[in-house]
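Recap quiz, item 2
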Amino acid sequence: MDSHSPTLLKVENLSKKFLVKKSLFKKEYFKAVDNVSFSIEHNHVLGIVGESGSGKSTIGRLVLKLIEKDEGKIYFEGKDVYKFSAEEEKLFRKETSVVFQDPRTSLNPRFKVFQIVEEPLIVHGFNKKEREKKVVEAVEDAGLDSSFLDRYPSDLSGGQRQRVAIARAVVLKPKLIIADEPTSALDVSVQLQIINLIKRLKKEKGISFLFISHDLNVVGMLSDRILVLYRGKVMEKGDARSILKNPLHPYTKILLESLPPDHPKRRKNLSSIPEIYREEIKGSCVFYSRCPKATEECKKEPAYRITDSREVYCHFV
Ligand code: ADP
Ligand code: MG
């Protein structure tokens, strides 16, 4: 990619809240995504990591325009995705795709593998001959041979089904794939195969990924950059290797500490950390109640600190 081509995906100050309670006099909202910014370059993987409910999938859905944003801007190759012409919208749909956690529910059980992978090609108007060629290519790119084309999802293992979902996601030769916990429903050995497949698709096809997972171990294996999310807010983001080597935010440190005991990146000398430290305070740092390091100062929200190409939401960095 030449250095003048614009950043593949740029997200600025994205926010989304959901209505949780509605009565005659009162509406209550829940901030699922709170002022999140990031970008993804061509041929790069950004890993978003955070516990369940932290807003990861909501970010993925916002980027794909499956749900409406409240605030913020999203640019795809320099173009505002909310100001697309019909033509640009169609191209965006072709150049982005998604892989979900559970291929059992994301693949149509009544379709054979061929039809599942073929469907996006029909939507985008490819003729029968082109479709046949592209389906076979995509299935092979996903590490399956053509003997799978005639089978139904129910005939396949979890890993094979996820490969079919990936074949479908790559068949239009996208520039960006949103992979939302694609390995979380799989056994560890199969997880590794899928991670390696994603790495290969990045390397050989130049595809970028927004890779979402609750597991920092998995995210660390394939991401160029990492964004750590907590309650819809960015806690820390930056170069993956530097975050894994030297996490700056207390929450990132906790995530690293919870890696498996034999993991080389696991932090050794941290004491174990209880779930909750102190009562919530309105207007505090969002991590206040769980932070092992919190002081009086943390009753106020921190500003983002930018250090050495890292951005950290903490008073003490
Ligand atoms: P994650 O993917 O990190 O587990 P999600 O993005 O799915 O988190 O959800 C973030 C928060 O937003 C959760 O508390 C979830 O319950 C809430 N949420 C997500 N979608 C909706 C919705 N359509 N309506 C109401 N609340 C939602
Ligand atoms: Mg999710």
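The chain has a mean pLDDT of 92.
The chain is about 30% helix and 25% strand.
End of item.
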